[in-house]
Amino acid sequence: MAKDVIIALDFPTREETLRFLDRFPAGEEKPFVKIGMELYYAEGPSVVREIKARGHRIFLDLKLHDIPNTVKRAMAVLSGLDVDMVNLHAAGTSAMMRAALEGLTRPDGTRPLLIAVTQLTSTDAEALKNELLIDTPMAETVLSYARNAAASGLDGVVCSPLEAALVKERCGAGFCTVTPGVRFAGGDAGDQKRVMTPEQAAKNGCDYIVMGRPITKDPDPVEAYRRAVSEFLG
Ligand code: C5P
Question: Is the CB of 63 inside a 6 Å radius of any atom of ligand 1?
Answer without folding.
Answer: no
